[in-house]
Write a structure and sequence with these properties.
Layout: H1 2-27, H2 30-54, H3 58-66, H4 71-102, H5 105-110, H6 115-120, H7 123-146, H8 150-182, H9 185-200, H10 211-217, H11 221-233, H12 244-274
Helix pairs in contact: 1-7, 2-4, 2-7, 4-7, 4-8, 4-9, 4-11, 7-8, 8-9, 8-11, 8-12, 9-10, 11-12
Length: 280
Protein backbone atom coordinates (compact mmCIF):
# COMPACT_ATOMS: atom_id res chain seq x y z
CA UNK A 1 0.00 0.00 0.00
CA UNK A 2 2.83 2.37 0.89
CA UNK A 3 4.61 1.66 -2.39
CA UNK A 4 1.38 2.24 -4.34
CA UNK A 5 0.92 5.57 -2.58
CA UNK A 6 4.48 6.57 -3.47
CA UNK A 7 3.89 5.68 -7.13
CA UNK A 8 0.71 7.77 -7.17
CA UNK A 9 2.58 10.74 -5.72
CA UNK A 10 5.32 10.39 -8.34
CA UNK A 11 2.72 10.27 -11.12
CA UNK A 12 1.12 13.44 -9.76
CA UNK A 13 4.51 15.18 -9.86
CA UNK A 14 5.06 14.10 -13.46
CA UNK A 15 1.55 15.21 -14.40
CA UNK A 16 1.99 18.61 -12.73
CA UNK A 17 5.25 19.32 -14.57
CA UNK A 18 3.79 18.12 -17.87
CA UNK A 19 0.63 20.22 -17.58
CA UNK A 20 2.59 23.31 -16.52
CA UNK A 21 5.10 23.11 -19.38
CA UNK A 22 2.47 22.29 -21.99
CA UNK A 23 0.43 25.30 -20.87
CA UNK A 24 3.49 27.48 -21.40
CA UNK A 25 4.02 26.00 -24.87
CA UNK A 26 0.35 26.38 -25.84
CA UNK A 27 0.28 29.92 -24.52
CA UNK A 28 2.67 30.84 -27.33
CA UNK A 29 1.63 28.49 -30.18
CA UNK A 30 3.49 30.54 -32.77
CA UNK A 31 6.70 28.90 -31.56
CA UNK A 32 5.31 25.47 -32.48
CA UNK A 33 4.55 26.64 -36.03
CA UNK A 34 8.03 28.14 -36.19
CA UNK A 35 9.62 24.81 -35.27
CA UNK A 36 7.50 23.07 -37.92
CA UNK A 37 8.55 25.53 -40.65
CA UNK A 38 12.19 26.04 -39.68
CA UNK A 39 13.50 22.65 -41.00
CA UNK A 40 12.08 23.53 -44.44
CA UNK A 41 13.80 26.92 -44.34
CA UNK A 42 17.17 25.43 -43.38
CA UNK A 43 16.86 22.61 -45.91
CA UNK A 44 15.89 25.02 -48.67
CA UNK A 45 18.89 27.20 -47.82
CA UNK A 46 21.37 24.31 -48.11
CA UNK A 47 19.63 22.99 -51.25
CA UNK A 48 19.80 26.40 -52.90
CA UNK A 49 23.46 26.95 -51.99
CA UNK A 50 24.42 23.50 -53.29
CA UNK A 51 22.57 23.96 -56.57
CA UNK A 52 23.96 27.45 -57.14
CA UNK A 53 27.55 26.22 -56.61
CA UNK A 54 27.44 22.85 -58.39
CA UNK A 55 24.91 23.70 -61.10
CA UNK A 56 22.74 21.13 -62.92
CA UNK A 57 24.97 18.25 -61.81
CA UNK A 58 24.44 19.02 -58.12
CA UNK A 59 21.90 16.25 -57.50
CA UNK A 60 24.00 13.62 -59.27
CA UNK A 61 27.12 14.60 -57.31
CA UNK A 62 25.14 14.58 -54.09
CA UNK A 63 23.80 11.07 -54.74
CA UNK A 64 27.28 9.73 -55.51
CA UNK A 65 28.64 11.12 -52.23
CA UNK A 66 25.73 10.24 -49.91
CA UNK A 67 23.87 7.37 -51.57
CA UNK A 68 20.62 9.38 -51.35
CA UNK A 69 19.09 10.80 -54.53
CA UNK A 70 16.89 13.39 -52.82
CA UNK A 71 19.03 16.11 -51.23
CA UNK A 72 16.05 18.08 -49.90
CA UNK A 73 14.75 15.15 -47.84
CA UNK A 74 18.32 14.40 -46.76
CA UNK A 75 18.66 17.92 -45.40
CA UNK A 76 15.12 17.89 -43.99
CA UNK A 77 15.69 14.82 -41.82
CA UNK A 78 19.00 16.23 -40.62
CA UNK A 79 17.29 19.53 -39.79
CA UNK A 80 14.54 17.73 -37.86
CA UNK A 81 17.03 15.84 -35.68
CA UNK A 82 19.01 19.06 -35.21
CA UNK A 83 15.87 20.90 -34.12
CA UNK A 84 14.87 18.10 -31.73
CA UNK A 85 18.33 18.03 -30.17
CA UNK A 86 18.46 21.79 -29.85
CA UNK A 87 14.96 22.03 -28.41
CA UNK A 88 15.46 19.36 -25.76
CA UNK A 89 19.01 20.31 -24.77
CA UNK A 90 18.25 24.02 -24.55
CA UNK A 91 14.97 23.64 -22.70
CA UNK A 92 16.18 20.98 -20.29
CA UNK A 93 19.53 22.70 -19.89
CA UNK A 94 17.97 26.07 -19.09
CA UNK A 95 14.91 24.80 -17.19
CA UNK A 96 16.46 25.25 -13.76
CA UNK A 97 17.78 28.67 -14.70
CA UNK A 98 14.36 29.72 -15.97
CA UNK A 99 12.77 28.65 -12.70
CA UNK A 100 15.29 30.85 -10.90
CA UNK A 101 14.49 33.82 -13.12
CA UNK A 102 10.74 33.30 -12.66
CA UNK A 103 11.14 33.17 -8.89
CA UNK A 104 9.66 29.67 -8.64
CA UNK A 105 12.91 27.76 -8.12
CA UNK A 106 12.70 27.78 -4.32
CA UNK A 107 9.12 26.47 -4.40
CA UNK A 108 10.38 23.26 -5.97
CA UNK A 109 12.79 22.72 -3.09
CA UNK A 110 10.15 23.52 -0.49
CA UNK A 111 7.96 20.71 -1.81
CA UNK A 112 8.33 17.18 -0.41
CA UNK A 113 8.64 15.74 -3.91
CA UNK A 114 11.80 14.13 -5.22
CA UNK A 115 13.76 16.92 -6.89
CA UNK A 116 15.44 14.66 -9.44
CA UNK A 117 11.99 13.42 -10.45
CA UNK A 118 10.77 17.00 -10.90
CA UNK A 119 13.59 17.97 -13.25
CA UNK A 120 13.50 14.60 -15.02
CA UNK A 121 9.82 15.11 -15.83
CA UNK A 122 10.72 17.95 -18.19
CA UNK A 123 11.60 15.42 -20.87
CA UNK A 124 7.92 14.53 -21.39
CA UNK A 125 6.49 17.92 -22.47
CA UNK A 126 9.55 18.90 -24.49
CA UNK A 127 9.75 15.42 -25.99
CA UNK A 128 6.06 15.67 -26.92
CA UNK A 129 6.58 18.96 -28.73
CA UNK A 130 9.72 17.64 -30.47
CA UNK A 131 8.07 14.45 -31.73
CA UNK A 132 4.89 16.28 -32.72
CA UNK A 133 6.68 18.94 -34.75
CA UNK A 134 8.96 16.35 -36.38
CA UNK A 135 6.00 14.16 -37.33
CA UNK A 136 4.06 17.06 -38.83
CA UNK A 137 7.12 18.34 -40.71
CA UNK A 138 8.26 14.98 -42.09
CA UNK A 139 4.92 13.42 -43.03
CA UNK A 140 3.87 15.54 -46.06
CA UNK A 141 7.14 15.31 -48.07
CA UNK A 142 7.59 11.61 -47.29
CA UNK A 143 4.06 10.76 -48.45
CA UNK A 144 4.54 12.91 -51.54
CA UNK A 145 7.84 11.19 -52.36
CA UNK A 146 7.11 7.57 -51.41
CA UNK A 147 3.33 7.38 -50.96
CA UNK A 148 1.55 5.79 -48.02
CA UNK A 149 4.00 2.87 -47.98
CA UNK A 150 6.28 5.19 -45.99
CA UNK A 151 3.88 5.10 -42.99
CA UNK A 152 5.45 1.89 -41.65
CA UNK A 153 8.92 3.36 -42.05
CA UNK A 154 7.71 6.50 -40.31
CA UNK A 155 6.50 4.46 -37.33
CA UNK A 156 9.92 2.78 -37.10
CA UNK A 157 11.48 6.23 -37.36
CA UNK A 158 9.36 7.46 -34.44
CA UNK A 159 10.59 4.50 -32.38
CA UNK A 160 14.18 5.46 -33.16
CA UNK A 161 13.43 9.05 -32.17
CA UNK A 162 11.79 7.93 -28.93
CA UNK A 163 14.90 5.94 -28.01
CA UNK A 164 17.12 8.81 -29.17
CA UNK A 165 15.43 11.30 -26.85
CA UNK A 166 16.73 9.41 -23.79
CA UNK A 167 20.46 10.14 -24.24
CA UNK A 168 19.69 13.72 -25.32
CA UNK A 169 17.83 14.17 -22.05
CA UNK A 170 20.86 12.85 -20.16
CA UNK A 171 22.99 15.50 -21.88
CA UNK A 172 20.36 18.08 -20.95
CA UNK A 173 20.61 17.16 -17.26
CA UNK A 174 24.37 17.66 -17.36
CA UNK A 175 23.88 21.03 -19.04
CA UNK A 176 21.27 22.01 -16.46
CA UNK A 177 23.70 21.32 -13.60
CA UNK A 178 26.54 23.22 -15.31
CA UNK A 179 24.22 26.11 -16.13
CA UNK A 180 23.27 26.68 -12.49
CA UNK A 181 26.87 26.27 -11.36
CA UNK A 182 28.33 28.78 -13.83
CA UNK A 183 25.21 30.98 -14.22
CA UNK A 184 25.67 31.20 -18.02
CA UNK A 185 23.19 28.93 -19.79
CA UNK A 186 23.98 29.98 -23.35
CA UNK A 187 27.74 29.58 -22.94
CA UNK A 188 27.32 25.95 -21.86
CA UNK A 189 24.58 25.20 -24.40
CA UNK A 190 26.49 26.65 -27.36
CA UNK A 191 29.66 24.67 -26.62
CA UNK A 192 27.79 21.37 -26.30
CA UNK A 193 25.58 22.10 -29.31
CA UNK A 194 28.62 22.84 -31.48
CA UNK A 195 30.26 19.53 -30.58
CA UNK A 196 27.04 17.62 -31.24
CA UNK A 197 26.43 19.39 -34.57
CA UNK A 198 29.92 18.72 -35.92
CA UNK A 199 29.85 15.03 -34.95
CA UNK A 200 26.27 14.22 -35.97
CA UNK A 201 26.30 14.67 -39.75
CA UNK A 202 23.04 16.59 -39.85
CA UNK A 203 23.91 18.13 -43.23
CA UNK A 204 26.76 16.01 -44.54
CA UNK A 205 27.96 12.38 -44.44
CA UNK A 206 30.31 11.60 -41.58
CA UNK A 207 32.74 9.99 -44.01
CA UNK A 208 34.06 13.43 -44.99
CA UNK A 209 35.33 14.02 -41.45
CA UNK A 210 38.86 13.09 -40.33
CA UNK A 211 39.14 9.50 -39.15
CA UNK A 212 39.61 10.45 -35.48
CA UNK A 213 36.50 12.62 -35.61
CA UNK A 214 34.54 9.76 -37.16
CA UNK A 215 35.52 7.68 -34.14
CA UNK A 216 34.36 10.44 -31.81
CA UNK A 217 31.03 10.61 -33.65
CA UNK A 218 30.38 6.96 -32.78
CA UNK A 219 29.92 8.07 -29.16
CA UNK A 220 27.51 10.88 -30.09
CA UNK A 221 23.95 9.44 -30.09
CA UNK A 222 22.57 11.96 -32.57
CA UNK A 223 24.93 10.67 -35.29
CA UNK A 224 23.28 7.24 -35.08
CA UNK A 225 19.78 8.74 -34.92
CA UNK A 226 20.43 10.74 -38.10
CA UNK A 227 21.94 7.85 -40.07
CA UNK A 228 19.30 5.34 -38.99
CA UNK A 229 16.45 7.69 -39.87
CA UNK A 230 17.87 8.30 -43.33
CA UNK A 231 18.26 4.60 -44.01
CA UNK A 232 14.76 3.79 -42.74
CA UNK A 233 12.89 6.67 -44.35
CA UNK A 234 14.93 7.40 -47.48
CA UNK A 235 16.59 4.09 -48.31
CA UNK A 236 13.51 2.11 -47.18
CA UNK A 237 15.62 -0.36 -45.21
CA UNK A 238 13.56 -2.80 -43.14
CA UNK A 239 16.04 -4.88 -41.14
CA UNK A 240 17.20 -1.88 -39.19
CA UNK A 241 17.06 -3.54 -35.76
CA UNK A 242 19.88 -5.89 -36.73
CA UNK A 243 22.14 -2.90 -37.45
CA UNK A 244 24.97 -2.45 -34.96
CA UNK A 245 24.17 1.25 -34.85
CA UNK A 246 20.74 0.55 -33.40
CA UNK A 247 22.33 -1.62 -30.69
CA UNK A 248 24.91 1.09 -30.05
CA UNK A 249 22.13 3.70 -29.82
CA UNK A 250 20.39 1.61 -27.15
CA UNK A 251 23.68 1.31 -25.26
CA UNK A 252 24.39 5.04 -25.50
CA UNK A 253 20.83 5.82 -24.36
CA UNK A 254 21.45 3.90 -21.15
CA UNK A 255 24.95 5.30 -20.60
CA UNK A 256 24.07 8.96 -21.21
CA UNK A 257 20.93 8.80 -19.08
CA UNK A 258 22.75 7.18 -16.14
CA UNK A 259 25.67 9.63 -16.44
CA UNK A 260 23.36 12.63 -16.72
CA UNK A 261 21.19 11.57 -13.81
CA UNK A 262 24.22 10.71 -11.66
CA UNK A 263 25.92 14.01 -12.51
CA UNK A 264 22.80 15.97 -11.63
CA UNK A 265 22.23 14.16 -8.31
CA UNK A 266 25.86 14.70 -7.32
CA UNK A 267 25.69 18.39 -8.25
CA UNK A 268 22.49 18.86 -6.28
CA UNK A 269 23.99 17.18 -3.21
CA UNK A 270 27.08 19.40 -3.35
CA UNK A 271 24.99 22.50 -4.04
CA UNK A 272 22.89 21.85 -0.94
CA UNK A 273 26.00 21.61 1.20
CA UNK A 274 27.74 24.68 -0.23
CA UNK A 275 24.65 26.91 -0.56
CA UNK A 276 25.06 27.08 -4.35
CA UNK A 277 21.31 26.75 -4.83
CA UNK A 278 20.72 30.19 -3.35
CA UNK A 279 23.24 31.93 -5.61
CA UNK A 280 21.86 33.43 -8.80
Amino acid sequence: MKRKSQINKSLLVIKAVYVKEMKIWLRYPSWIFTFIALPYMISGLFYGIGYSIAGPGATKNFASNTGIDDPFLYYLLGSLVFMMTTLICEDIGSSIRMEQMRGTFELHYLSPSNKALIWSSYILPHGTISLLTMFISALPPLIYRFGFQSIISLIIGLLILFIGIIPIFGIGLIMAALTVKYKEPWAVINVVRTIITVCSGFYYPLTILPYWLQLVSQFVPTSHITMLLREVLLANRRLIFSDYRFTLLLFLSLIYFVLGYGFFVRWERNARRSGELSKY
